[in-house]
Design a protein that fits this description.
Blueprint lengths: L3 H5 L2 H10 L5 H6 L17 H5 L34 H5 L3 H14 L17 H10 L8 H50 L9 H4 L5 H14 L17 H7 L1 H11 L7 H19 L6 H13 L15 H19 L15 H25 L32 H22 L3 H10 L2 H19 L6 H31 L9 H9 L8 H20 L12 H19 L5 H20 L7 H14 L14 H13 L21 H9 L5 H4 L2 H4 L8 H14 L9
Length: 732
C-alpha cells in the first residue's frame, strides 16, 4: 500500500482518481456514456457538453454506490426526501409523471435489456404496464431473428403509440374545421360527416361516400342470413347492429370481404359490388406486399376462396373454364402463408396458449379452415398441398370450436358440422396423397395392380364416416353439403380404378392391327367381366348420385345460389366424368338416355341458381350444354374485332343446332381433356387447341420420323398420354 507522501508526489495520478469518482447527469448515465461536466466553465456541475449540444435539460444524478437499491417497479411509490442533499434533483425527478416521461423514450431509444418474446399482436395493455413487463419479465427466448425483431417492434410500438396518435388526430380535426370554414355551409355538413376518426364513418368506403352505413349494415345482414352458415368464420358478435362501429374499426379485411361477397349478385345495384371489389383488391395487394395483418385477413381470404366474386377478375368468360379454381388456389395459398407468419399453426396444440380463450379459439378455427380449404382446392385442381397443418393428429373436435356451438336452444350446431367436414377432409387428403400423389407413382400402381387394397380401404373408411355423421341432426342445406361432399369423395376415390382399367388396356397388344379406341371400346362393353368392375360401377353411381342430390334435394334459388362454389364445380366434374364414361361405350342406350336427362336437369338447376349471365351457374351450364349436346364443327371464339353480343348469338345458334353427324361420337381414348381439368374441357368445346404440356404432345412433336402418318402419330400420342410423367392430373 502506498504512503500519502507517495501519492502526493504523483499529482497527475491524484487528478485521475478524482475524475473517476465524478458524477454524471441522468441522460448520459442512461446512455451509459461519458458525461463531460468540465467543459462548461463550472467543473463538476451541469449542464454537460452533450446536453448543451442536444438542447436537453441536464439533471445531475446521485451516487448509486452503497445502500439499498430500489427496483424500478417501486420507484413510482417512492416519496422524495425534503432535506437538501446532493441527490435532491434525482429524487424530485423520480415522481410518477417524470418517471413515465423518461421511461417511454428510453425503451424506444435503447436496447431493452433482456429480450422478451411477444406474440405478433399481444393483448391490449396500457403503455406503462407493457413497458414495465418488457423491462422486468422474460416470457421466452426468441427462436429466430424474426422473433427478436417482433419483440422489439412490439415494445417500440406500444411505447410510442399514445404520443404519436394524439397529435395526428388533432391535426386531422384542425384540417376538417378549416376546410368547412373556407367552403361554406355545404362543406360544413361534409366536415361533420368526416369528423369521426373511428367507427363506421371512418371506414374507407363510407368515408369516401361510396357507401353509407345503412347499406353496409344491410350487406352484413344479408351475408349473415345467406352465406355465413356454409363457412361460419365471422364472429357472431359482429352480426349485431350495435357492433358495426367495432367491426369497421378492428376488422376491415373481414368486413370488406363479406360485403363484397354479399353484393356480388345485386344486379340492380352493380356499382356497390364494383366499389367493394376495388377496395378488396387493394387490401389483397397490400397483404401480398407484406402489409401487417391479423387473423381477420386470413378469414377474409378463405371466404373469398369459397365464393370468388366476379368483380375481382378483370375478364369474365362466357363459358366457365376453371378461373374460379385458379383464383381460389391463390387466395388459399396467401391465407396459409399469412397464417404461418402470425403463428396460427401453434393453435393446433392445446398446450401452447396464445392469449385469452376467445382469441385462441378464433385463431384455431381460422387455421383449421385453412387446412380444409387447402385440401379441397388441391383435390379440385390436382395439385400438391401447401400446408402440413393443423395436424389432425391433435384430435380437434367440436369442443375446440366454441364460437360454432349453439348460443341458444334450437340454433344450428355448426361445431359438429365443422368436425364432420374436418374428418371428411382428412379422408380427401389421404386419398389424394396415396392415389394421386404423382403421375409416375400413380401409373406404377395402375400397372402393378396394388392400388386395389388402397381403394378398398378408403371405401371402408368413407362408409364408416357416413355411418357416424350421416344421422347428424342439422338443417336441410347443411345436410345437403355433407351428402354432396361424401358423394364426390366416393367418385374421386373410385375413379382411380377407372383410369387403371384404361392404362392396363392400353399396354396390351392390339388385336388385328386395330386402334386403341377400338380396343378400349371392346374392353368397356363388358364391364362386368373386368377385374375392377365394382370400382367402375361405383364411380359412375357416385357421379349420378351427386347430380341427383343437386337437382332433387337442393333448392336452386334459396340454397344452391348461396352455396360455396365448390359444390357447383363438383357437379361439373361429375357431369364431365359421366361424359367421359359414356365415350368409352360402357353405358347401354337406356342408361345413357337417363344420364343425358340427368345432365339436362343439372344445367337447368344451374341456370335457376344464377343471378345473371356472368354468374357461375350460367357460365358452367353453357359448358355442359356444349359438351353434351354436341360440339360444333367451328365453335365461335371471341376475337378483338368481335363484340360479345355477336359471340353470344353464334353460341346460341350452336347450342340450338347441335351437330347431327353420327361420326361425332367417334371419340379418341382421351377425348382431348381430363375430367379434372375444366380449362381443357373449355378448350375442347370451343375448338381451341389443347395444351401440349398437359396432354404430353411433346412425345410426337419431337418424333424422329417426319413422315409418320397422322394415325400413327395419334396412336403414339395416346400411348404417351397414359404412360408419360406430365402432371398430377389424371387424363381420364
Amino acid at each position: 500500500m502506498e504512503s500519502p507522501s507517495q501519492v502526493a508526489s504523483q499529482p497527475h495520478r491524484a487528478d485521475n482518481i478524482l475524475k473517476r469518482v465524478s458524477r454524471a447527469c441522468l441522460h448520459c448515465r442512461q446512455r451509459k456514456s461519458r458525461c463531460d461536466l468540465d467543459s462548461n466553465g463550472n467543473p463538476g456541475k451541469p449542464p454537460c457538453q452533450r446536453c448543451v449540444r442536444e438542447n436537453r435539460e441536464c439533471v445531475l444524478g446521485g451516487s448509486n454506490r452503497g445502500g439499498r437499491r430500489i427496483r424500478k417497479n417501486k420507484i413510482k411509490n417512492f416519496t422524495p426526501a425534503t432535506n437538501p442533499s446532493p441527490t435532491k434533483d434525482w429524487e424530485e425527478s423520480s415522481s410518477p409523471e417524470s418517471s413515465e416521461a423518461r421511461r417511454a423514450p428510453s425503451v424506444s431509444a435503447s436496447y431493452p435489456g433482456p429480450v422478451v418474446f411477444l406474440p405478433p399482436n399481444p393483448p391490449a395493455t396500457s403503455n406503462s404496464i407493457a413497458v414495465e413487463d418488457a423491462d422486468t419479465a422474460i416470457d421466452s427466448v426468441p427462436r429466430n431473428p424474426s422473433d427478436a425483431w417482433q419483440c422489439l417492434t412490439g415494445i417500440a410500438t406500444q411505447s410510442t403509440s399514445v404520443p404519436q396518435d394524439r397529435p395526428r388526430d388533432h391535426h386531422a380535426r384542425s384540417e376538417s374545421g378549416s376546410f368547412s370554414a373556407h367552403n361554406g355551409l355545404r362543406n360544413s355538413i361534409v366536415a361533420d360527416f368526416n369528423a369521426p376518426n373511428t367507427g363506421i364513418k371512418a371506414y374507407r368506403l363510407v368515408h369516401s361516400r361510396a357507401l353509407d352505413p345503412a347499406t353496409v349494415w344491410q350487406l352484413v345482414n344479408r351475408y349473415a342470413e345467406n352465406f355465413h352458415p356454409y363457412l361460419p368464420l365471422v364472429p357472431r358478435k359482429y352480426f349485431e347492429r350495435s357492433a358495426l362501429d367495432e367491426f369497421a374499426n378492428n376488422e376491415k379485411y373481414l368486413l370488406t370481404a363479406i360485403i363484397t361477397i354479399a353484393s356480388k349478385d345485386l344486379l340492380d345495384r352493380p356499382e356497390i359490388h364494383e366499389c367493394c371489389s376495388k377496395y378488396m383488391l387493394e387490401l389483397i395487394s397490400a397483404i401480398s406486399a407484406g402489409a401487417e395483418c391479423d387473423v381477420d385477413a386470413i378469414e377474409a381470404l378463405l371466404l373469398l376462396a369459397e365464393w370468388e366474386p366476379h368483380g375481382l377478375r378483370s375478364r369474365i368468360e362466357r363459358v366457365g373454364r376453371g378461373e374460379e379454381d385458379r383464383a381460389a388456389w391463390m387466395h388459399v395459398g396467401l391465407a396459409l402463408r399469412s397464417g404461418y407468419f402470425i403463428g396460427l399453426d401453434r393453435t393446433s396444440f392445446r398446450g401452447d396458449p396464445y392469449g385469452e380463450q376467445a382469441t385462441e379459439a378464433r385463431r384455431r378455427l381460422a387455421w383449421a379452415s385453412c387446412y380444409v380449404s387447402d385440401r379441397l382446392i388441391s383435390v379440385r385442381i390436382g395439385r400438391a398441398f401447401w400446408s402440413r397443418g393443423p395436424g389432425p393428429m391433435t384430435g380437434l373436435v367440436s369442443q375446440d370450436f366454441p364460437s360454432l356451438q349453439p348460443a341458444r336452444e334450437g340454433d344450428e350446431d355448426y361445431s359438429k358440422i365443422f368436425q364432420a367436414m374436418l374428418d371428411l377432409t382428412q379422408l380427401y387428403g389421404n386419398v389424394h396423397e396415396v392415389l394421386y400423389s404423382g403421375m409416375r407413382t400413380s401409373n406404377q400402381m395402375m400397372l402393378m395392380g396394388d392400388y386395389v387394397k388402397y381403394v378398398d380401404d378408403f371405401r371402408l373408411a368413407i362408409l364408416r364416416w357416413k355411418s357416424l355423421w350421416g344421422p347428424l341432426d342439422c338443417s336441410a342445406p347443411m345436410r345437403a353439403t355433407l351428402q354432396l361432399s361424401y358423394e364426390y369423395l366416393r367418385l374421386y376415390t373410385t375413379a382411380f380404378a377407372f383410369q387403371a382399367a384404361i392404362s392396363q388396356s392400353l399396354v396390351k397388344p392390339k388385336v388385328d392391327g386395330g386402334s386403341h379406341r377400338d380396343q378400349l371400346r371392346t374392353t368397356f362393353k363388358n364391364v362386368a367381366s373386368m377385374q375392377d368392375s365394382r370400382f367402375i360401377y361405383e364411380s359412375v353411381d357416385a357421379a349420378k348420385a351427386y347430380l341427383t342430390i343437386l337437382v332433387d334435394s337442393v333448392d336452386p334459388e334459396r340454397h344452391l345460389h348461396f352455396m360455396p362454389l365448390r359444390f357447383y364445380l363438383y357437379g361439373i366434374y361429375s357431369a364431365v366424368f359421366l361424359y367421359k364414361a359414356r365415350s368409352f361405350g360402357m353405358m347401354v342406350p337406356s342408361e345413357e338416355a337417363k344420364v343425358q336427362g340427368l345432365v339436362a336437369r343439372t344445367t337447368e338447376v344451374l341456370k335457376q341458381a344464377s343471378a345473371g349471365p356472368d354468374d357461375i351457374g350460367s357460365r358452367y351450364s353453357r359448358l355442359l350444354e356444349l359438351l353434351w349436346k354436341g360440339k360444333p364443327t367451328n365453335m365461335p371464339t371471341t376475337t378483338p374485332g368481335e363484340t360479345p353480343q355477336s359471340t353470344d348469338f353464334a353460341m346460341q345458334a350452336a347450342l340450338s343446332n347441335p351437330v347431327s353427324d353420327p361420326s361425332y361420337m367417334d371419340f379418341s381414348p382421351a377425348n382431348d381433356f381430363s375430367w379434372l381439368d375444366l380449362e381443357a374441357v373449355g378448350d375442347y368445346v370451343s375448338g381451341d387447341p389443347v395444351s401440349g404440356g398437359l396432354l404430353g404432345l411433346d412425345a410426337f412433336q419431337n418424333s424422329s420420323d417426319p413422315f409418320q402418318s397422322a394415325q400413327d402419330r395419334s396412336q403414339n400420342w395416346q400411348s404417351s398420354t397414359w404412360l408419360g410423367d406430365m402432371s398430377s392430373n389424371l387424363l381420364f
